[in-house]
Amino acid sequence: MSALPIAASLDIKAASSANSIAIGFVKNTDESFEFVGPLVADIEKFFGLNLVDELTFFGPTAKAGEIFEIPVSAADCPTDRIFLVGIGDQSGSALRAAGASVGRKVRGKNLTVYSACAVKEVKAHAISMALGAWVWNLKTDKKMEEPKLSVGSKDKKIVEEAAAIAQAMCRARDLIHTPANIKTPAWMGKQAELFAKGTGLKVKVFAGAELKEFGGLRAVGGSSPKPGPRMIEVSYQPKSKKKSVDALPHIVLVGKGITFDTGGISLKRPYDTMIEMKSDMAGSAAILGTLTAIEELQPNVRVTALMMMAENAISGTAQRPSDVIKHYGGTTVEVINTDAEGRLVLADGLAYADINLDPDYLVDIATLTGAISLGLGRQYAAMYTRDNALAAQLSKAGEASGDRVWHMPLVDDYKDSLGSDIADFNHNASKGKYSAGSVTAALFLENFVGTRRWVHLDIAGTARSEVDAGENSKGGTGFGVRLLTEWITSLS
Q: CA dihedral defined by 299, 240, 291, 407, rounded to 10 degrees?
């Protein structure tokens, strides 16, 4: 499923034309319960209900996302269920939880649902409804069914923005969940072209001899039996010509795109850790999804996405520990562990962007290190930058969007771990015993960004969910689309 349509309206006629209606409730300081929203009285009158009486029967707590279901009926009305949904303190996070609960209630069903839960944070609520309802599989035993979603709001523009972001996240999730026997680097190029068709987005796919100078990308992707590595460049500029294109801020996004990661010669162990490695291209999926959202929203900026696509397989042409490769721009790197391949493909993309694209902002995003999952878990992505003002912008965008980031230190004392006796650097911090794998990976990447305003996002913890709950189905989350879209539109 690539998208769920989200409509906006605010009247009892629209609500009662849906199969299900969701209404939000809160708990007051005196322990009483109250339903929130302009349609509550109309819904009670239309269906002949006292909603507080109905709710009290369940013994609710009003925790955000708590949901109860009651049957209803009315003449000439398709509505047969009302969902009573806890909306907590009505914050963005609470209304995201409520939206996800509503979406999950109708997941995989050919139903319409109208949510009157969100008086505040309508965009956050609407996006999470779509994410909760999202499902993806390749089963052939039944037709894939999708619900239709409506949100109680007079602000159609806000809901249209939510729909664009939700569609982008669903597209990213679709890409992440696609198995690697289908999802080759070449296939990803075709998907980018498909998403760009009929829009203002421009796509260029670099392959073969065009990648001659991309030593990291070729070293990692040269081992695959599938068509070789690709760099997919997707570019956006606004349709409006209020300013000359050259005067607009230029943001370059670089995404890790490993379509499957065996670890290469440094094989992953135990083998079952490999099963989820079809999602090791979540960074590239996020930036492609972001570009499709940006194209819908039309901020007054320029954006270029570089998707660094390769499969890290095992074959007679696989790179070896102790190999020395030359990255785009000439920097030489000694390969220590072929399972630290993500930073090799990102280094080429960052150097290419610095040398050729003159970005005002340079951001890379990658499922880069297991170390960061130990440090931050699955609720925050790591953010590395020396630019505190830029870090503050992204932190604010993360809190607003739900894709939260934590500013991590670039510890200069650890730089000596990247030394090499035979090349400019080793890529795996093998010279030190600092036990800071995410930090040293970021320090390695910093060598390829010149003097740009640069941010590295390590999303290894947040890009995958281990459980099927809330907004997320088990597997790829689409993390980064909301964050980057929120931040980029704020620069307009």
A: -30
Helix 481-490 and helix 282-297, axial crossing angle in degrees, nearest 10: 40
Terminal CA-CA length for the chain: 31
Closest residue by Cα to residue 176 from 405, 464, 471: 464
Query: Sheet holding 324-326: strands in order across?
Result: 324-326, 332-334, 425-426
Q: Please, are residues 304 and 232 in contact by the beta-carbon 8 Å criterion?
A: no
Active-site residue, 326 included: no
Which residues, in sequence order, are bridge partners of residue 9?
152
C-alpha span between 89 and 62 (Å, rounded): 9
Q: Which amino acid is at 283?
A: G
Instruction: Give the Cα separation of 282 and 459 in Å (integer).
Output: 8
Distance of CA 35 to the CA centre of its chain: 33
What local confidence, expressed as pLDDT, does residue 141 receive? 78
Q: How many CB atoms lie within 10 A of CB 412?
A: 8
Q: How far apart are the C-alpha atoms of 464 and 269, rounded to whole Å? A: 19
DSSP, res 469: B
For 260-293, give the DSSP string.
EE--TTS--SSGGGGGGGGGTTHHHHHHHHHHHH
* CA neighbor of 485 nearest in space, from 39, 208, 163: 163
Catalytic residue of the set 268, 326, 396, 453: 268
Residue 146, helix vs strand vs coil: coil
- Interval 175-188: pLDDT, tens: 999 999 999 999 99
C-alpha dihedral (332, 334, 340, 344), degrees to nearest 10: 10
Alpha carbon separation from 448 to 219, 349, 352, 396, 424 (Å, rounded) = 17, 9, 9, 27, 12
Choosing from 343, 404, 431, 452, the catalytic residue is: 343
Whether the full predicted model's pTM is greater than 0.90, yes or no, is: yes
**DSSP 8-state class, residue 421:** S
Instruction: Sort residue 36 into left (φ over 0), alpha (ψ -120 to 50) or beta.
Output: beta
CA count, 13 A, side-chain hemisphere, 126: 32
Strand segments (E) across 313-448: 324-326, 332-334, 361-366, 381-384, 405-408, 425-426
pLDDT digits 0-9 by tens, 270-295:
888 899 999 999 999 999 999 999 99
The conformation of residue 475, written as its DSSP 8-state character, comes to E
Banded pLDDT at 1 (limits 50, 70, 90): very low
Q: Quick one: tokens of 100?
A: 């996800």
Instruction: Name the phi and psi angles at 52, rounded to 5.
Output: -65, -40
Active-site annotation holds for 243:
no
State the pairing for strand pair 381-384/454-458: antiparallel
- In angstroms, the CA 431 to CA 383 distance is 24
Q: How many residues does the structure list for the chain? A: 492
Which residue is associated with the tokens 């999202």?
134
Q: What angle do CA 167, 172, 177 make, to 5 degrees?
A: 125
